[in-house]
């Protein structure tokens, strides 16, 4: 794959662009201090994120109608609060904690490298995050997306094919000229299945010290990079 | 309406943010010079734009399935070229001329005022232009949209209610907290019908010297402004 074979870069967001675990620990710690809670917020973050795929699955397989990710995050939070024995948060605190996903910090290389990449390529999110979540995150962090697309506009959660195909269609770019960028091999396999080119990014701190990555040796991807700076270098921008 | 009653500003684009007539004249003149054509490009622009509503109508009323605006612009161009007796453009020239809609220049106040407005509000396009058209225009002109929404993501051309409602839903903002900004009264009437707040912008040069505006005296809109700078002033940003 050469740089001129690509028109658009589509990005997974949680874990790939932003640090969800660090953000939950940050805001959980502040909430815990306010309420005098003794909670391991890293474990809490992992438990909340652990409910992500089961909750998405209930929409993907048609057991329930479409709901935006904010709603699934809320349902997951209520379960995890109960599991950790945290009671006594009021509705405003719960609603605000759900929105921690709108306030996640980007990995340190992200904004500068995306700004470089934007000069030559169309940059779009291809996340399971809903549009408003992704817009709020971008405004706060300065992420320079050209378009916020993905699951909500497709009404299909990744890894359903329509999430990828609707995004490529709205960008008016053939899937083969879209480069899917993600820190998760499973996302890239699904994108590749729809004809996308693929780039794996190592985000070694995504799961804290408990590294948990899924890249096999015989991955067959187009690119594997350490961070977005290396991606920009490899694409010559 | 006070500034804190609004969360998101949604914008019509053609005529409201960018000068479609001037852009067509600019690129038509260059094409005419290359081919030695004697064409009044202002009349040509008006004729091309004049086919816009009839072509949109064929999709709106279900006579044909959804097609993006780029396709309708192409069909309109082919009609207008024939009407003006212009033959001999090759396929690459026709495809490039269709994309003049991606290369329209913003009105002089637009970029600076949108940059001010973006600090406080979510800014989204609510245009009949397709996503890629609107993205290309924004990249070229530096229009700082938070999200590119509107007709294509709704699969409904304005003034169909779903164009407005889908945009508000994706922004997760109640229609009553969205301010629709347009230089066309009919667009604002349709937005108002879905509960949007409304702002009319005078774009006195939209139709060249042949001013053609539709704002009645008893308009009942929330705001009427001379340009986006006045809108930013009125909203206190």
UniProtKB/TrEMBL annotation, chains A, B:
The keyword Hydrolase applies. SUPFAM superfamilies: HAD-like. Its EC number is 3.8.1.2. Coiled coil: none annotated. The keyword Zinc-finger does not apply. Transmembrane segments: none annotated. It catalyses: an (S)-2-haloacid + H2O = a (2R)-2-hydroxycarboxylate + a halide anion + H(+). GO terms for molecular function: (S)-2-haloacid dehalogenase activity. Gene3D superfamilies: HAD superfamily/HAD-like (3.40.50.1000), Putative phosphatase, domain 2 (1.10.150.240). InterPro entries: 2-HAD, HAD-like_sf, HAD-SF_hydro_IA, HAD_sf, PGP-like_dom2, S-2-haloacid_dehalogenase. Keywords: Hydrolase. Belongs to the HAD-like hydrolase superfamily. S-2-haloalkanoic acid dehalogenase family. Catalyzes the hydrolytic dehalogenation of small (S)-2-haloalkanoic acids to yield the corresponding (R)-2-hydroxyalkanoic acids. This is (S)-2-haloacid dehalogenase. It comes from Aliidongia dinghuensis. The gene is dehII.
